[in-house]
Amino acid sequence: MHLPRLLLPALTLTALALFAQVPAGSTAPAMEWREVFNEDGTITQALTPKAPAETTTFRALAAAEVTKIHGDRDPADAFDLVFVGDGYTADDLATYTANVKSKWDELSAVEPFASYKDYFNVWQVNVISTESGVDHDPTRGILKDTALDMGFWCQGRDANTERLLCVNETKAKEYAAQAPQADQVIALGNTTKYGGAGGSVATASGSNAQAGQIAIHELGHSIGGLADEYDYPYLTYTGTEPREKNVTKDPTGAKWGEYLGKPSPDGGVIAPLEGARYYKNGLYRPTDNSIMRTLGKQFNSIGRDEMIKAFKAKIPSLTTPAVR
Ligand SMILES: [Zn+2]
Looking at the domain assignment, is residue 115 inside a domain? Predict the structure, then answer.
Protein backbone atom coordinates (compact mmCIF):
# COMPACT_ATOMS: atom_id res chain seq x y z
CA MET A 1 0.00 0.00 0.00
CA HIS A 2 1.35 3.39 -0.93
CA LEU A 3 -0.22 6.38 0.75
CA PRO A 4 -0.01 9.73 -1.05
CA ARG A 5 3.49 11.12 -0.93
CA LEU A 6 2.93 14.79 -1.10
CA LEU A 7 6.53 15.82 -1.01
CA LEU A 8 8.00 13.47 -3.53
CA PRO A 9 7.71 15.77 -6.56
CA ALA A 10 10.26 18.04 -4.93
CA LEU A 11 12.59 15.13 -4.38
CA THR A 12 15.77 14.29 -6.24
CA LEU A 13 16.22 17.77 -7.54
CA THR A 14 19.92 17.32 -7.92
CA ALA A 15 19.82 13.89 -9.45
CA LEU A 16 17.27 14.93 -12.05
CA ALA A 17 17.94 18.57 -12.74
CA LEU A 18 21.29 17.96 -14.34
CA PHE A 19 20.44 14.81 -16.19
CA ALA A 20 22.66 14.08 -19.16
CA GLN A 21 22.58 11.28 -21.68
CA VAL A 22 24.73 10.19 -24.61
CA PRO A 23 23.19 10.38 -28.10
CA ALA A 24 20.93 7.56 -29.23
CA GLY A 25 22.80 4.82 -31.00
CA SER A 26 25.97 5.33 -29.04
CA THR A 27 27.39 2.35 -27.24
CA ALA A 28 28.83 4.49 -24.45
CA PRO A 29 26.98 4.17 -21.14
CA ALA A 30 24.31 6.75 -20.34
CA MET A 31 25.55 9.33 -17.86
CA GLU A 32 23.92 11.29 -15.08
CA TRP A 33 25.02 14.03 -12.67
CA ARG A 34 25.26 12.96 -9.05
CA GLU A 35 25.71 15.13 -6.03
CA VAL A 36 29.05 14.51 -4.30
CA PHE A 37 29.85 15.49 -0.71
CA ASN A 38 33.48 16.29 0.00
CA GLU A 39 35.16 15.72 3.33
CA ASP A 40 35.82 19.45 3.81
CA GLY A 41 32.06 20.06 3.61
CA THR A 42 31.99 21.44 0.07
CA ILE A 43 29.53 19.92 -2.37
CA THR A 44 29.99 19.29 -6.09
CA GLN A 45 28.55 17.25 -8.93
CA ALA A 46 30.09 14.28 -10.73
CA LEU A 47 29.07 13.06 -14.16
CA THR A 48 28.72 9.33 -13.55
CA PRO A 49 27.66 6.31 -15.63
CA LYS A 50 24.03 5.44 -14.87
CA ALA A 51 23.12 2.13 -13.32
CA PRO A 52 21.93 -0.40 -15.90
CA ALA A 53 18.14 -0.59 -16.18
CA GLU A 54 16.64 -3.17 -13.86
CA THR A 55 15.33 -6.16 -15.73
CA THR A 56 13.32 -7.48 -12.81
CA THR A 57 11.34 -6.06 -9.96
CA PHE A 58 12.15 -7.09 -6.46
CA ARG A 59 8.70 -7.57 -5.00
CA ALA A 60 9.86 -11.00 -3.86
CA LEU A 61 12.47 -9.56 -1.51
CA ALA A 62 12.50 -11.20 1.88
CA ALA A 63 10.29 -9.56 4.44
CA ALA A 64 12.36 -7.44 6.78
CA GLU A 65 11.60 -6.52 10.36
CA VAL A 66 10.55 -2.87 10.68
CA THR A 67 11.04 -1.03 13.95
CA LYS A 68 9.97 2.48 14.82
CA ILE A 69 12.77 4.40 16.48
CA HIS A 70 10.99 7.71 16.93
CA GLY A 71 7.46 9.11 16.87
CA ASP A 72 3.99 7.70 17.23
CA ARG A 73 1.90 9.64 14.77
CA ASP A 74 -0.54 8.60 12.07
CA PRO A 75 1.60 8.58 8.89
CA ALA A 76 -1.04 10.83 7.31
CA ASP A 77 -0.15 13.43 9.94
CA ALA A 78 3.63 13.06 10.05
CA PHE A 79 6.81 13.17 8.03
CA ASP A 80 8.04 9.60 7.68
CA LEU A 81 11.77 9.04 7.44
CA VAL A 82 12.80 5.48 6.58
CA PHE A 83 16.27 4.04 7.04
CA VAL A 84 17.44 0.95 5.19
CA GLY A 85 20.86 -0.61 5.74
CA ASP A 86 23.31 -2.43 3.51
CA GLY A 87 26.16 -4.72 4.43
CA TYR A 88 24.80 -5.44 7.89
CA THR A 89 24.53 -9.16 8.70
CA ALA A 90 22.25 -10.48 11.44
CA ASP A 91 25.24 -10.18 13.77
CA ASP A 92 25.68 -6.52 12.76
CA LEU A 93 22.16 -5.42 13.70
CA ALA A 94 23.30 -3.73 16.91
CA THR A 95 25.76 -1.67 14.86
CA TYR A 96 23.03 -0.77 12.38
CA THR A 97 20.65 0.26 15.16
CA ALA A 98 23.35 2.47 16.69
CA ASN A 99 24.12 3.99 13.26
CA VAL A 100 20.47 4.85 12.62
CA LYS A 101 20.13 6.38 16.07
CA SER A 102 23.24 8.53 15.69
CA LYS A 103 22.09 9.83 12.30
CA TRP A 104 18.64 10.68 13.64
CA ASP A 105 20.13 12.33 16.75
CA GLU A 106 22.31 14.51 14.55
CA LEU A 107 19.48 15.41 12.18
CA SER A 108 16.99 16.18 14.92
CA ALA A 109 19.43 18.55 16.64
CA VAL A 110 19.46 20.90 13.62
CA GLU A 111 16.77 23.55 13.11
CA PRO A 112 14.06 23.43 11.93
CA PHE A 113 14.00 19.67 12.60
CA ALA A 114 14.72 20.27 16.30
CA SER A 115 11.54 22.31 16.70
CA TYR A 116 9.44 19.90 14.61
CA LYS A 117 10.83 16.49 15.59
CA ASP A 118 7.59 15.59 17.35
CA TYR A 119 6.00 15.51 13.89
CA PHE A 120 8.39 12.87 12.53
CA ASN A 121 8.07 9.12 12.49
CA VAL A 122 11.42 7.43 12.00
CA TRP A 123 11.44 3.85 10.79
CA GLN A 124 14.31 1.39 10.66
CA VAL A 125 14.02 -1.49 8.18
CA ASN A 126 16.32 -4.31 9.25
CA VAL A 127 17.66 -5.38 5.88
CA ILE A 128 19.92 -8.41 6.41
CA SER A 129 22.94 -8.93 4.16
CA THR A 130 24.92 -12.13 3.64
CA GLU A 131 28.25 -10.39 4.15
CA SER A 132 29.43 -7.41 6.22
CA GLY A 133 30.57 -4.21 4.52
CA VAL A 134 30.05 -2.62 1.12
CA ASP A 135 31.76 -2.95 -2.26
CA HIS A 136 35.14 -1.33 -2.99
CA ASP A 137 35.89 -0.82 0.71
CA PRO A 138 38.56 -0.29 1.85
CA THR A 139 40.01 -0.53 -1.65
CA ARG A 140 38.64 -0.79 -5.15
CA GLY A 141 37.85 -4.29 -6.37
CA ILE A 142 36.85 -5.77 -3.02
CA LEU A 143 33.30 -7.01 -3.48
CA LYS A 144 30.72 -8.05 -0.87
CA ASP A 145 27.50 -10.00 -1.24
CA THR A 146 24.98 -7.54 0.21
CA ALA A 147 21.25 -6.93 -0.03
CA LEU A 148 21.35 -3.48 -1.64
CA ASP A 149 24.55 -3.70 -3.74
CA MET A 150 26.03 -0.57 -2.18
CA GLY A 151 29.51 0.48 -3.20
CA PHE A 152 32.04 3.30 -3.36
CA TRP A 153 33.10 4.72 -6.75
CA CYS A 154 29.30 4.71 -7.41
CA GLN A 155 29.16 0.91 -7.24
CA GLY A 156 32.41 0.80 -9.21
CA ARG A 157 30.98 2.65 -12.23
CA ASP A 158 32.67 5.99 -11.59
CA ALA A 159 36.35 6.25 -12.37
CA ASN A 160 36.98 9.52 -10.53
CA THR A 161 35.05 9.82 -7.29
CA GLU A 162 35.74 7.29 -4.55
CA ARG A 163 33.44 8.91 -1.96
CA LEU A 164 30.40 8.58 -4.23
CA LEU A 165 28.54 5.83 -2.37
CA CYS A 166 25.75 4.45 -4.60
CA VAL A 167 23.02 1.94 -3.86
CA ASN A 168 20.58 -0.16 -5.87
CA GLU A 169 17.75 2.35 -5.55
CA THR A 170 15.08 -0.10 -6.73
CA LYS A 171 15.94 -2.58 -4.00
CA ALA A 172 16.32 0.17 -1.39
CA LYS A 173 12.85 1.51 -2.18
CA GLU A 174 11.31 -1.96 -2.14
CA TYR A 175 12.65 -2.53 1.36
CA ALA A 176 11.65 0.97 2.46
CA ALA A 177 8.09 0.24 1.29
CA GLN A 178 7.85 -2.31 4.10
CA ALA A 179 7.53 0.64 6.48
CA PRO A 180 4.03 2.18 6.67
CA GLN A 181 5.08 5.19 4.61
CA ALA A 182 8.29 6.71 3.28
CA ASP A 183 8.56 10.43 2.63
CA GLN A 184 12.35 10.15 2.41
CA VAL A 185 14.54 7.03 2.27
CA ILE A 186 18.08 7.07 3.66
CA ALA A 187 20.34 4.09 2.96
CA LEU A 188 23.20 3.56 5.42
CA GLY A 189 26.20 1.44 4.47
CA ASN A 190 28.11 -0.62 7.01
CA THR A 191 31.38 1.27 6.68
CA THR A 192 33.49 3.82 8.52
CA LYS A 193 34.83 5.33 5.29
CA TYR A 194 33.41 8.76 4.43
CA GLY A 195 30.89 8.74 1.62
CA GLY A 196 27.38 9.41 0.44
CA ALA A 197 25.26 10.60 -2.46
CA GLY A 198 22.07 12.52 -3.10
CA GLY A 199 18.98 11.32 -4.89
CA SER A 200 15.60 9.73 -4.34
CA VAL A 201 17.47 7.45 -1.96
CA ALA A 202 20.11 9.45 -0.10
CA THR A 203 23.10 7.39 1.04
CA ALA A 204 25.60 7.82 3.86
CA SER A 205 28.31 5.81 5.58
CA GLY A 206 26.69 4.41 8.71
CA SER A 207 29.72 4.54 11.00
CA ASN A 208 31.20 7.81 9.75
CA ALA A 209 30.06 10.68 11.97
CA GLN A 210 30.58 13.35 9.32
CA ALA A 211 28.34 11.55 6.82
CA GLY A 212 25.21 12.38 8.83
CA GLN A 213 25.33 15.90 7.42
CA ILE A 214 24.48 14.47 4.02
CA ALA A 215 21.02 13.44 5.19
CA ILE A 216 20.37 16.92 6.57
CA HIS A 217 21.26 18.55 3.24
CA GLU A 218 19.13 16.06 1.31
CA LEU A 219 16.09 16.86 3.42
CA GLY A 220 16.57 20.49 2.43
CA HIS A 221 15.80 19.31 -1.09
CA SER A 222 13.10 16.79 -0.34
CA ILE A 223 11.19 18.65 2.37
CA GLY A 224 11.94 22.28 1.61
CA GLY A 225 12.17 22.06 -2.16
CA LEU A 226 15.39 24.04 -1.78
CA ALA A 227 17.95 24.49 -4.54
CA ASP A 228 21.63 23.81 -4.08
CA GLU A 229 23.49 27.03 -3.36
CA TYR A 230 26.87 25.90 -4.71
CA ASP A 231 28.03 27.06 -8.13
CA TYR A 232 29.62 24.00 -9.71
CA PRO A 233 29.89 22.96 -12.60
CA TYR A 234 28.50 25.64 -14.97
CA LEU A 235 29.52 29.20 -15.84
CA THR A 236 26.67 31.52 -16.81
CA TYR A 237 22.93 31.04 -16.27
CA THR A 238 20.59 32.32 -18.97
CA GLY A 239 17.35 30.48 -18.10
CA THR A 240 14.10 31.59 -16.52
CA GLU A 241 13.62 32.54 -12.88
CA PRO A 242 14.10 29.35 -10.81
CA ARG A 243 11.06 28.14 -8.90
CA GLU A 244 13.05 27.45 -5.72
CA LYS A 245 12.69 30.19 -3.12
CA ASN A 246 16.36 30.24 -2.08
CA VAL A 247 17.84 31.21 -5.46
CA THR A 248 17.07 33.99 -7.93
CA LYS A 249 18.36 35.42 -11.19
CA ASP A 250 17.48 38.93 -9.99
CA PRO A 251 20.60 40.70 -8.66
CA THR A 252 18.44 42.93 -6.43
CA GLY A 253 17.10 39.89 -4.56
CA ALA A 254 13.57 41.31 -4.68
CA LYS A 255 12.24 37.72 -4.47
CA TRP A 256 13.31 37.71 -0.81
CA GLY A 257 11.33 40.85 0.03
CA GLU A 258 11.32 41.56 3.73
CA TYR A 259 14.14 39.09 4.44
CA LEU A 260 16.66 41.46 2.85
CA GLY A 261 19.16 42.90 5.31
CA LYS A 262 17.95 40.74 8.20
CA PRO A 263 20.27 38.39 10.13
CA SER A 264 20.29 34.71 9.12
CA PRO A 265 21.10 31.76 11.43
CA ASP A 266 24.00 30.65 9.19
CA GLY A 267 25.71 34.03 9.67
CA GLY A 268 25.52 37.45 8.07
CA VAL A 269 22.39 39.04 6.66
CA ILE A 270 20.19 38.11 3.72
CA ALA A 271 21.66 39.77 0.61
CA PRO A 272 22.07 38.45 -2.94
CA LEU A 273 25.46 36.83 -3.59
CA GLU A 274 26.37 35.67 -7.07
CA GLY A 275 26.99 31.95 -7.54
CA ALA A 276 24.23 29.40 -6.89
CA ARG A 277 22.38 26.36 -8.24
CA TYR A 278 25.34 25.04 -10.31
CA TYR A 279 26.21 28.42 -11.94
CA LYS A 280 29.03 30.82 -11.09
CA ASN A 281 27.28 33.75 -12.77
CA GLY A 282 23.71 34.87 -13.29
CA LEU A 283 22.17 33.18 -10.23
CA TYR A 284 22.20 34.47 -6.65
CA ARG A 285 22.00 32.84 -3.21
CA PRO A 286 20.69 34.56 -0.08
CA THR A 287 23.68 33.98 2.24
CA ASP A 288 27.34 33.14 1.85
CA ASN A 289 27.43 29.64 3.23
CA SER A 290 24.30 27.78 4.28
CA ILE A 291 24.06 23.97 4.44
CA MET A 292 22.66 24.01 0.91
CA ARG A 293 26.19 25.05 -0.08
CA THR A 294 28.44 23.51 2.58
CA LEU A 295 27.85 20.62 4.97
CA GLY A 296 28.09 21.38 8.67
CA LYS A 297 26.44 24.80 8.33
CA GLN A 298 22.93 25.92 9.31
CA PHE A 299 20.04 26.45 6.94
CA ASN A 300 19.59 30.15 6.17
CA SER A 301 16.36 31.82 7.30
CA ILE A 302 14.75 31.42 3.87
CA GLY A 303 15.54 27.70 3.86
CA ARG A 304 14.23 27.23 7.39
CA ASP A 305 10.99 29.01 6.62
CA GLU A 306 10.44 27.02 3.42
CA MET A 307 10.80 23.80 5.39
CA ILE A 308 8.42 24.98 8.08
CA LYS A 309 5.90 25.84 5.34
CA ALA A 310 6.33 22.33 3.94
CA PHE A 311 5.80 20.77 7.37
CA LYS A 312 2.56 22.74 7.69
CA ALA A 313 1.41 21.69 4.22
CA LYS A 314 2.20 18.03 4.88
CA ILE A 315 1.06 17.67 8.49
CA PRO A 316 -2.61 18.65 8.98
CA SER A 317 -2.48 19.01 12.77
CA LEU A 318 0.08 21.80 12.46
CA THR A 319 -2.57 24.04 10.93
CA THR A 320 -5.82 22.56 12.29
CA PRO A 321 -6.64 23.45 15.88
CA ALA A 322 -6.84 20.40 18.14
CA VAL A 323 -10.36 19.24 19.05
CA ARG A 324 -11.01 19.87 22.71
ZN1 LIG B 1 22.13 19.13 -2.89
Answer: yes
